[in-house]
Structures are given as structure tokens and as C-alpha cells.
């Protein structure tokens, strides 16, 4: 099977601006820089996305994402940070290797827009809540 681009970065076959590395986690600048310091934090081992990674490795990746978010606010001058991970194409995932975006926010003119519109009209919230609750038991 063809290696994905992040497996190639882990294996040193594609260069990156590396920020952090340990046995399980790698963090590097996103090539697209939607804002200054836009970072990707990935598991070194291949998992398709957040929904399939082991809990232990996911926690390690999230720890590093949190630290980079803290550094962005403290040292890069960010006023806020979006931490997000896309799962599957329908959610905008383009690289099928688990990664977390750390997107520092400054003045609202970043190349990234997050808009949440209220779309609750016609939805049966008690029924939806019950369905999800049952699966979590
Ligand atoms: P996704 O849309 O899958 O959540 O995000 C994938 C991200 O990977 C994109 O923001 C894209 O700019 C970044 N990316 C894709 N190829 C490379 C690469 O070769 N190097 C780096 N540093 N980032 C990449």
C-alpha cells in the first residue's frame, strides 16, 4: 500500500519544519500556514484518524497539541487557538493519517473560518440524545 504523506514525513522521506518529537508523537508546521504557527501534531504510528487511534496514543498527541497551543498564546502572541481534527473526507480530512491541527488566532484575518450555524430546527433532541446515550453505555 502506498505510504501517506505523513508516514513519509515520519520516515524522513519528506522534509518538514519539526517542532517536537518523541517515540510516539511528531509535531511540525503545516505547509499551508493558515495562520502564523499553524501546526500539525501526529501519531508516528499510522492510524487513519481520531476515531481509530488507540486511546493511549491519542492522549499523547493531545498533550503535545495542548502544549503547542499554550506556547502559541504565550510566545507567538496568539489571542486564541483552534484545536481540531478532521475525520473522513466528509469532514474535510485530506490526509488519511491521524493529525491534530493547532491553529493560532490573531486578528480574525487568518486563512481559516469556523462558522457554526444553529441548525436545530426540526430535530428531535430528546430522541437524538437517547440514541447516543444508549451507545455510550
Ligand atoms: P486535513 O485537511 O487532512 O485535516 O489537513 C491536512 C493538512 O496537511 C493540510 O492543512 C495540508 O496543508 C497539510 N499538508 C499536506 N501535505 C503536507 C506536507 O507535505 N507537509 C506539511 N508540513 N503539511 C502538509
Notable traits:
28% helix; binds guanosine-5'-monophosphate; 137 residues; HIT family, subunit A; globular; alpha+beta; five-stranded antiparallel beta sheet; single chain; 5 strands
Task: Please identify the top-level CATH class.
Answer: Alpha Beta
Q: What is the helix content? A: 25-40%
The molecules bound to the chains, other than polymers, are:
guanosine-5'-monophosphate
Low-confidence stretches: none
Alpha-beta content class? alpha+beta
**Number of helical runs?**
3
Determine the mean pLDDT: 97
Which CATH architecture would you pick?
2-Layer Sandwich
Number of domains: 1
Quantity of strands, as a count: 5
The CATH topology name reads HIT family, subunit A
Strand percentage: 15-25%
Give a quick account of the main beta sheet: strands, pairing sense, barrel closure: 5 strands, antiparallel
Radius of gyration, whole Å: 17 Å
What gross morphology would you assign?
Answer: globular
Reading the helices and strands in chain order gives HEEEHEEH
State the CATH superfamily name: HIT-like
Strand order of the largest sheet: 1-2-3-5-4
How far is the N terminus from the C terminus? 37 Å
Amino acid at each position: 500500500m502506498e505510504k501517506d504523506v505523513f508516514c513519509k514525513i515520519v520516515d524522513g522521506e519528506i522534509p518538514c519544519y519539526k517542532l517536537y518529537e518523541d517515540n510516539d508523537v511528531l509535531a511540525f508546521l503545516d505547509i499551508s500556514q493558515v495562520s502564523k504557527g499553524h501546526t500539525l501534531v501526529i501519531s508516528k504510528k499510522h492510524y487513519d484518524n481520531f476515531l481509530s487511534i488507540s486511546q493511549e496514543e491519542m492522549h499523547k498527541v493531545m498533550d503535545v497539541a495542548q502544549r503547542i497551543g499554550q506556547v502559541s498564546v504565550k510566545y507567538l502572541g496568539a489571542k486564541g487557538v483552534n484545536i481540531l481534527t478532521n475525520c473522513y473526507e466528509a469532514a474535510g480530512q485530506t490526509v488519511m493519517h491521524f493529525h491534530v491541527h493547532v491553529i493560532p488566532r490573531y486578528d480574525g484575518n487568518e486563512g481559516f473560518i469556523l462558522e457554526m450555524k444553529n441548525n436545530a430546527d426540526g430535530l428531535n433532541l430528546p430522541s437524538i440524545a437517547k440514541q447516543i446515550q444508549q451507545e455510550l453505555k
